[in-house]
Amino acid sequence: MTLNYAFGFSVILLLLVAVNVYFFYTFTGLSKPHSFPVPSKLELAPDIFKDIFDQLNYLPSHYKVKNPKYLPVQRRLLQSFQVPSDTNTRSLWQDAQKWSNEETLFPRTYGAPGQILHAIRTSPIALVDNAPKGSIYAGFDRHNSEVFAYYLASVLNFKWIAPSTIRKVHVRNDVVPFATAGLKMTMLKNESGSHCIYGKCYYCKPNETVCPDNNGEIEGAAILYLDKQFGIHKYEVYKDKIVLVDNGKGLGNPAVDEMDILAPLYQCCILSLSTWLQLEMVPGGSLTDTIKLISATQGETLATEEHFRAVERRLLKIYATVQYCIGKHGRAKVLKSTF
C-alpha cells in the first residue's frame, strides 16, 4: 500500500504536467493506422518508445470517447467542491485533528473539500514565515501547478495530497504586520517602495524577488499545512502512505512530452488495478473537463487550453504504454490489486 498511490500518481502527474521535455509530435486522425509516426528525434531512442507510439495507432475506440459511467462519479466529485452557505471556518479548524484516517489524509465527502478550500482562502492571516526548505532548482515554481495537481489527484481518487487553492494576499496589510523576524530579513523594498520577498532556500537570491502587483497583492498557492510527523525517505510518508507534495514544477511547456518519465511503468510493467480502472473512467476529455469544472467552483483558471490539450495527449500515451505492457506480459501480470 505504501507505493500504491505514489507509483500511480508519480507516473500520471509527472507525465501530464511534466516540464522538461525533449520531443513533441502533434497528432490527428487517431482512427487511421500509422497516424503516430515516431518523431525523428526518437530514431536513436530505445525501441520501446517506438513500440509505444505504435500502440497509439491502434488504441481501442473507448480510449478516445467519454465513458458514460463517469458522469455520476463526476457529479459527486463536483458536489464535494461546492461551498455550503453555512460554512463555519472556526469549527472547521477545530475538527481538523479528526480528518485523517487510514484511507485518506483529508475528508472528501459531504462538501468537505469545498469547505476546506474556502477556509484556506478566506481565514485571517495570523503569522507569516519562510518555509526553510528547497534545494533543487529547475526554474521558478508555478503556483497554479500546485492547485492543478490537487484537482488532478482528486479526479484520479488519490487521497494523500494536501488541499491547495489560489489565494491573493496584500503584502503591506496581510504579510508585513504578521511577518516573523526571519521573513523580514528576506524582504526588501524595490524602487517603487513596495515590499518584495526573496525567501529562504539554497538558490534564493536578493536579486530574484517576488514583488506585489499594482494593487499591492501577490498571488500564490495556499496549501493546507500538514502538521504531522512524517517519515522521510526522499519522499514523505505518513501512516505508511506516501504523501504527494511539492508539485510546483508542472504546467511548463505544453508542446513537449517526456517519455522517459514513464520509465517506472514501461520498465516494470506493473500498475495498481484501481489506478488503471480510474484512468479508464476519464478518457475523451473527461479528465480535463472535470479539472476545469472543479476550478470553476473555486473561481480559478489554472491553465491554458494548450496545457489541457497536452494533458489529454499525454493521457493517450499512458493508455498506449499500459497496452504495450499488457501485450507483452498479459493483463494479470501488469494490473495488480495489491503490491
Automatic annotation (TrEMBL):
InterPro entries: FAM20, FAM20_C. Residues 189-229, 233-334 form the FAM20 C-terminal domain. One of its GO terms (molecular function) is ATP binding. Keywords: ATP-binding, Disulfide bond, Glycoprotein, Golgi apparatus, Kinase, Manganese, Membrane, Metal-binding, Nucleotide-binding, Transferase, Transmembrane, Transmembrane helix. One of its GO terms (cellular component) is Golgi apparatus. Its cofactor is Mn(2+). It is found in: Golgi apparatus. Its main location: Golgi. Mn(2+) binds at residues 141, 246. ATP binds at residues 223-226, 236, 246. The chain crosses the membrane at residues 6-25. Belongs to the FAM20 family. This is Glycosaminoglycan xylosylkinase. It comes from Operophtera brumata (Winter moth). The lineage of its organism: Eukaryota, Metazoa, Ecdysozoa, Arthropoda, Hexapoda.
